[in-house]
Write a structure and sequence with these properties.
Strand content: 35-45%
Number of strands: 9
Radius of gyration: 21 Å
Shape: flat
Distance between the termini: 46 Å
Order of helices and strands: HEEEHEEEHHEHHHEHHE
Helix content: 25-40%
């Protein structure tokens, strides 16, 4: 399968309409486009993915029930992913990574990694790849989330579940965010700023939440992944955090 990367530069699907599972609903694919290049061994070190499609919300999927209840029967998906590795510096960047969900939300993520070794792209052995990952360091991480209706949807769903007004539901959600954030943030002032920004994002609809994490020193990727699971407070302490909300 890896050999296909050498003879193909990409793949594309355009203008496809098909039935969704065994229903009368339709999936409309405008474009699904994949491109890759800069092969290192058999593995591309540069790739992009673009998806533009409309798909029904599946009533059988529990995660989509809030959308079904809110009357959202279709999802317009606009996805744009790009990733590239630079051999001279060993830097790897995921940028852009943009997901647009029509009238619900728009998210954009940028992730930078440093000291990514060439051997990580040439090995197909899992154990060798894990050994190479030990060298990788985490760089800056940036996230922006634009509300186009998802906050109101969450508030309405919570109001129905708790049988309270939407204003009361919004206030309760904000209070929960602050309470849970207090546990995670501890004495970390930067983390508290992020919690305040998230609470403000929920307090008023139609805003954009922006969060940027910058390493205070060397942050090995594997160590960060382990800390994120076992000690989230220590994981956050590895970064300087900037967070804000705005229209």
């Amino acid at each position: 399968m890896l050999g296909l990367f050498r003879v193909l530069e990409g793949a594309e699907i355009k203008g496809v309409v098909s039935s969704y599972k065994n229903t009368r609903q339709l999936v409309t694919i405008d474009t699904i486009s994949m491109n890759w290049g800069q092969l290192v061994g058999s593995i591309p070190s540069k790739a992009s993915l673009v998806v533009k499609m409309v798909t029904p919300t599946d009533p059988a999927n529990p995660a989509l029930q809030p959308l079904i209840v809110a009357g959202v029967d279709k999802l317009a998906i606009d996805l744009d992913l790009g990733a590239a590795w630079t051999e001279s510096s060993g830097a790897f960047a995921l940028a852009p990574a943009t997901l647009d969900l029509g009238n619900l939300a728009r998210a954009q993520l940028r992730v930078a990694l440093a000291k990514v070794p060439r051997d990580l792209f040439t090995t197909t052995d899992r154990s060798e790849a894990m050994a190479q990952l030990v060298e990788v360091e985490t760089g800056a991480i940036e996230l922006s989330l634009g509300d186009r209706g998802v906050v109101d949807l969450v508030v309405a769903q919570f109001a129905r579940m708790q049988n309270v007004s939407r204003d009361a539901a919004r206030g309760a959600i904000v209070a929960m965010i602050r309470a849970q954030g207090e546990k995670i943030a501890g004495a970390n002032g930067d983390a508290r700023m992020a919690v305040d920004a998230l609470a403000g994002f929920v307090e008023a609809s139609g805003q954009t939440l922006s969060v940027k994490l910058m390493p205070r020193a060397k942050v090995p990727l594997m160590q960060l992944m382990q800390l994120s699971q076992s000690d989230p407070e220590s994981a956050l302490a590895q970064f300087r955090i900037e967070a804000s909300t705005g229209l």
